[in-house]
Amino acid sequence: MNAPLQVPPRRCAVYCRVSSDERLDQSFNSIDAQKEAGHAFIKSQGHEGWIAVTDDYDDGGYSGGNMERPALRRLMADIQVGKIDIIVVYKIDRLSRSLADFARMVDVFDRHRVSFSAVTQQINSATSMGRLMLNVLLSFAQFEREVTSERIRDKIAASKAKGMWMGGPLPLGYDVRDRMLVVNETEAALVRRIFGDFVAMRSATLMVKAYASEGVVTKRGKSFTKQTIYKMLNNRVYLGEIVHKGQSFTGQHPAIITPAQWDAVHALIATDGVERRRETNARMREPVLLRGLLFTPDGERLVPSYTVKRDKTYRYYTPVKHRRFGSWASQHGSLPAGPIEALVVEQIVAALSAPHVVQSVWDRIRETHPEMSEAEVVLPMRRLATMWPQLFPAEQCRLAQLLIERVVIADGGLEVFWRDQGWPDLAAELAPGTIGAELQELEASL
């Protein structure tokens, strides 16, 4: 005789709820009826290994429209710690009347391998038919969420079209009172100053520097950056308008600046933008000896920068943070380009004629190009050192990029880190028939 199959036990929790406390004091109320039906259903499934847990989950006098119910919270907590395998309810609406909440609960059930059964509706998520019914309900829940989202979006669009403030980061210059923007006169004065300063200074970088030295901060107590200033200068809220998806509507809040102030700032932004792009493109094409090579001791990159005073251009190498946030953002200052480049050129010229460098280059060339003689390597390098000042600036920059890995500004001077492969590559370029021959011809013609 075959032994009966052993079915693993499955722990079942009965959840009960009524929406009001009417008749809860009677000896047998709807909570009792739900609980009795749930336990009877569990007992009928004993052959499947169903057993009731010792604790029941009863929410008497709580609405099913939300999840703020003590017994439900306790049930969800016990599910997450693995105390329950099956949830039994009298009807689905006892668990939740909100399809969106129900969908979130089912997600939790699935993650913890918990099934769900409704006594009077023949829904059991452990069966294929039960899962089908749940999927139908979840589809309606998804539909409800999408319809709700569309309604919210439509309401926001309609409200903004009427000029209403619909929340978000509160702009400097305004406070919120009764869900309306009202002018904060102290902050509004700063907003007007920012628009005026931009017209006067024509530089967000100078404004950031000035505000940092004065301790002027944003609404949230942070230092101003160029990005913060430009964002304010482009915020049409200050014109008394509300913007939605690129469209501007007359707002229900008062303006802080006038249309004339707005137009003056944006005429300057448009003009300066064109000029800055033209100037930047032109300067990017200019040869700069140490572009991308110069660093501070702590690794901050220095980039070429320019100022014009009395029609004379002054060149600098400036910490990259200056370009993004202003001079206050870096502990390092700008350095004049001329003296630094002169020091680097001095080291390049010295290395081209230094015996130990030349010997090292010749040793490497001899291994890779045995057909070349020592004179074909040494003499062109020395001639190049002599002729460096006569080279075109673009050629000087190319050779510097070939030979140098990086230049670090150190206390009292600078340190040049050479590219190991740069010197053999240079020697190959100086071989007869290449740049070396051209240099010899140029030297002969001088």
Automatic annotation (TrEMBL):
InterPro entries: DNA_bind_recomb_sf, DNA_bind_recombinase_dom, Resolv_N, Resolvase-like_N_sf, SSR_resolvase. SUPFAM superfamilies: Resolvase-like (SSF53041). Residues 11-163 form the Resolvase/invertase-type recombinase catalytic domain. Signal peptide: none annotated. It holds the Pfam family Resolvase. Residues 171-275 form the Recombinase domain. This is Recombinase. It comes from Thauera humireducens. The lineage of its organism: Bacteria, Pseudomonadati, Pseudomonadota, Betaproteobacteria, Rhodocyclales.
